[in-house]
């Protein structure tokens, strides 16, 4: 199998992350155009001038997507502006404009964890009626990220998801369950330079939130259910016990309690680990970093499930196209956002920007598959993935979650005490958000 081709896909995904059957193209264009407008309105009838803001795109893919949009909507002028800085800098800039009620930008790239916060503040246009007629074209995981209180406030842009990385030169078939992962780890630790079976990230912050939510949901646990946090369950307790056992048994190093994604990747690149949980962008780095010992020796799969789980349940990352609720060009803005999320635009983004599509059929596109045959592994993982809690103030939730999970893992509180207190604190915080 031509593993180097996956590297081409994932190598370019680093650029995008710095802001983490064959499809029928002609029918997709028609569907997108029709749903963005009234049935009696053709794309040529929509006109206006809009401003689109994104993170810096050095690949030129976004501009190519805009050109494709203008072939369908020739009377809409799109002014594309890029914001400098990291994700937090972009968020701050956008919030300044939105909080002031500015009509510009009309459309902007929005991190999926901002959607609920921005929607609750009244800053995003409701696009539920526009997106629902075409909802079946999207993967379930990415589509779920644009909803808040059962209403859609953005169109999916590209997706990211926690994945299982494995040494493909050592094992042929990756594990699909926790038991298999542990069994393979025990078999190979101490051989071929392998010191650790499994690397993951539990730095007290967002890494803990993303990783521990995966463990909990892989084992049938839940987080936010019908507006109430219900983390305190036997399945969640068992998930914490599994993490503790990974460390105490030596399958995972104790250092995972302080690891961020780059820390795990550094060990994996040295050839010292059999498995690693990381984001989609990690593959490219393992194949291009100077000194990496695992070039051409890495496979990618969905994360394994626990004994009480039924799904990989990787944590979702990614971005969306949101329409400013204060835009004075709503019709043109919605048409643009929807097109940028369509089959045609997603294919351009996948091939040129290296992002992972949100439209299911792009994963089956012959041209995409010819260049990126391993994209199916990401499709399955993204479709089964789940969003982090979609609440008005996610940062508060993440902070509390990381604090009490760490109190459990470091022995400051028992697992049951930590989860019980965490549920109480989270539900108190949730009440204050109402």
Query: In oligomeric terms, what are we looking at?
Result: single chain
Low-confidence stretches: 1-34
Tally of contiguous helical segments: 18
Radius of gyration: 22 Å
Largest sheet entry: 5 strands, mixed
Biggest sheet strand order reads 2-1-3-13-6
How big a fraction of the residues is strand?
5-15%
Q: Find the count of extended strands (DSSP E, 2+ residues).
A: 13
Structural class: alpha/beta
Distance between the termini: 52 Å
Tell me roughly what share of residues is in helical segments: 40-55%
What is the mean pLDDT? 90
Brief sketch in words of this structure:
The protein has helices at residues 4-17, 25-36, 61-72, 87-99, 115-120, 128-131, 140-144, 178-188, 206-218, 234-248, 261-269, 282-288, 330-340, 343-353, 366-371, 375-384, 394-409, 415-433; strands at residues 48-55, 76-83, 107-111, 147-148, 151-152, 155-161, 163-167, 196-199, 224-225, 228-229, 273-278, 298-301, 316-323. With 434 residues, it is an alpha/beta fold.
Features of the shown structure:
13 strands, disordered N terminus, four-stranded mixed beta sheet, 18 helices, globular, alpha/beta, 434 residues, 45% helix
Question: How would you sum up this structure, described in words?
Answer:
The protein has 434 residues and is of the alpha/beta class. It is 45% helix and 15% strand. The chain has 18 helices and 13 strands. It has helices at 4-17, 25-36, 61-72, 87-99, 115-120, 128-131, 140-144, 178-188, 206-218, 234-248, 261-269, 282-288, 330-340, 343-353, 366-371, 375-384, 394-409, 415-433; strands at 48-55, 76-83, 107-111, 147-148, 151-152, 155-161, 163-167, 196-199, 224-225, 228-229, 273-278, 298-301, 316-323. The strands form four sheets. Strands 2-1-3-13-6 form a five-stranded mixed beta sheet. A hairpin with a 2-residue loop joins strand 9 and strand 10. Helix 2 packs antiparallel against helix 13 and helix 9 packs across helix 17 (394-409). The longest helix is centred in the C-terminal third of the chain and has 19 residues, at 415-433. The chain is globular and about 65 Å long. Residues 1-34 have low confidence and may be disordered.
């Amino acid at each position: 199998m031509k593993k180097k081709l996956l590297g081409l896909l994932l190598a370019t995904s680093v650029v995008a992350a710095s802001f983490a059957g064959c499809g029928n193209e002609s029918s997709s264009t028609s569907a997108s155009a029709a749903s963005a407008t009234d049935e009696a309105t053709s794309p040529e009838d929509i006109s206006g001038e809009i401003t689109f803001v994104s993170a810096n795109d050095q690949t030129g893919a976004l501009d190519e997507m805009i050109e494709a949009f203008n072939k369908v909507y020739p009377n809409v002028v799109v002014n594309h502006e890029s914001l400098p800085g990291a994700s937090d800098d972009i968020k701050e800039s956008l919030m300044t404009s939105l909080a002031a009620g500015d009509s510009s930008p009309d459309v902007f790239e929005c991190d999926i964890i901002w959607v609920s916060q921005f929607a609750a503040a009244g800053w995003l246009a409701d696009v539920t009626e526009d997106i629902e007629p075409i909802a079946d074209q999207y993967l379930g995981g990415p589509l779920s990220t644009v909803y808040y209180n059962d209403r859609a406030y953005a169109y999916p842009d590209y997706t990211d998801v926690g994945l299982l990385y494995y040494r493909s030169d050592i094992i042929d078939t990756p594990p699909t369950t926790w038991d298999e992962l542990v069994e393979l780890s025990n078999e190979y630790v101490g051989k071929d330079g392998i010191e650790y079976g499994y690397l993951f990230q539990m730095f007290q912050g967002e890494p803990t939130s993303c990783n521990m939510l995966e463990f909990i949901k892989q084992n049938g646990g839940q987080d936010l259910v019908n507006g109430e946090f219900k983390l305190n369950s036997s399945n969640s307790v068992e998930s914490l016990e599994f993490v503790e056992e990974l460390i105490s048994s030596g399958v995972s190093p104790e250092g995972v309690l302080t690891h961020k994604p780059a820390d795990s990747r550094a060990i994996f690149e040295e050839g010292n680990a059999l498995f690693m949980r990381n984001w989609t962008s990690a593959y490219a780095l393992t194949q291009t970093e100077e000194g990496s010992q695992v070039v051409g020796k890495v496979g990618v799969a969905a994360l394994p499930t626990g004994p009480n789980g039924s799904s990989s349940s990787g944590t979702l990352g990614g971005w969306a196209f949101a329409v400013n609720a204060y835009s004075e060009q709503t019709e043109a803005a919605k048409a643009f956002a929807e097109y940028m999320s369509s089959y045609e635009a997603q294919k351009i983004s996948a091939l040129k920007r290296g992002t992972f599509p949100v439209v299911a059929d792009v994963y089956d596109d012959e041209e995409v598959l010819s260049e990126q045959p391993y994209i199916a592994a990401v499709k399955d993982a993204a479709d089964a993935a789940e969003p982090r809690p979609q609440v008005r103030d996610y940062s508060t939730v993440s902070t509390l979650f990381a604090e009490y999970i760490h109190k459990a893992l470091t022995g400051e509180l028992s697992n049951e005490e930590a989860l019980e207190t965490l549920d109480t604190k989270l539900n108190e915080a949730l009440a204050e958000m109402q």
